[in-house]
Amino acid sequence: MPVPYPSYTPSGLSWAPQIPEGWQVQRNGRLFSHRVETGYPDLPILEVSLRTGVRVRDMVNGKRKQVMSAKEKYKRAVKGDIAYNMMRMWQGAVGPAPADGLVSPAYVVVKPHAGVNSAYFSYLFRTAAYMQEVNKYSRGIVADRNRLYWESFKQMPSLVPPPGDQNQIVAYLRTYELRSTHLIRHKRELIRLLSELVASIVDRAVRYGVGAQPNLKKSQIDWLGDVPEHWVICRADQVLTPVRKQVKMASLAGQDVFHYSIPVLSKTGDGRAESSTAIDSDKLLISGGELLVSKLNPHKGYVHLSREHPLPIVCSSELVPLMPKKCLPEFAKFVYQCRTVREYLQANARSATRSHSRVDPALISKMVWAWPDIEEQRSIVEYIQNENAPLLNAIEQAKDEIRLVRELCDGQIARVVTGQFDVRTWQPDPEDPITEEDLTALGDDDDNDTTEEETDGDDGHD
């Protein structure tokens, strides 16, 4: 178990007042030099993850479709260099290059001097305390557009343990991360299995009902298959009215609605509430009570029931609003979330990649389905909610545990790299092999793990 160092000295830094005896405080310009090298179009593309640092981008199987142009303008990063996103280093978009590669022109690449372990400094730079310092040294017109240029980065002070201690800290933290990663993987596998069970319960209930196996009839639709003979086969827009008269936000500029907090529904319909006085003109207003089906990545089943609200609700134009008229809203939501419908919409979506597909709104509203009467819909909804409640609770608990593991890991990293814990006598367990593949499991769960690239090429180099 790590313990404090035997003795400490004042550092002169507010974010790390005491440092171990033998450590130094040096400005980054004494530790790194600026690398600005272009004209290497044959090198692989590197990307910066907010969680795992720099990694080689998978251009074939990656989550994001990327069209590269003008690669000769991209900057070369040599293995061991540190690269950071000028606009998002304050969020942790920084790390050592695992191999020679290319980064966006708007990234900064720095070369470590002798005796500088870039992995240690990558850990240091991603601590909450250091990222707050990044904000102080960044410059920009508005806060969320601030940039940390090289000329400012080199002035920032950093904690510098002796070279041997840097290496030991890195070895300890990589092993600590690995153990955390294994736990996260187990939790993610549990979430996957529980989610499959939830989907199976929904799929069977909305296709065949609940209780005894019903008599079936052929639907004459290949992807739908047989359906209960007493259910009505019809298009969705016969039970769900497409909301066609959507008001563009631009036409409401200056009205009193902007003086209030307006619920904002994102592209995935997650219902986050935000206070907004300047909303993009492509957003739409809805009245509340609509079923909102996302056009994006239909295989994920992003469906949201909007709540009634005294003010209009801002709705992303990537959501398709449908107003239930001859069906229960909850039943319709389960229909669009069931595996059969998700696979049908995904098969007819427009895109080259599964994770960046978009389905035609007309396909969503005109999809054919078999609908039971309202009373049976109510029974099905109640059954699904009762059966899935403990499973959904278990999924949320597993997600909370993942967040807790990450918080504990981040806290341990911060304590070690700032000298609060002494790991110089720590020895690795022979049964703890460390691979880059293991460490990538600490990546974020969503598709936006990697930072968006700015390509204006302005890196403020001297």
From TrEMBL:
Biased amino acid composition, Acidic residues: 429-462
CDD domains: RMtype1_S_TRD-CR_like
Disordered: annotated span: 424-462
Keyword entries, A-Z: DNA-binding, Restriction system
SUPFAM superfamilies assigned: DNA methylase specificity domain (SSF116734)
Cross-referenced InterPro entries: Restrct_endonuc_typeI_TRD_sf, Type-I_RE_S_subunit
Superkingdom classification of source: Bacteria
Protein's name in the database: Restriction endonuclease subunit S
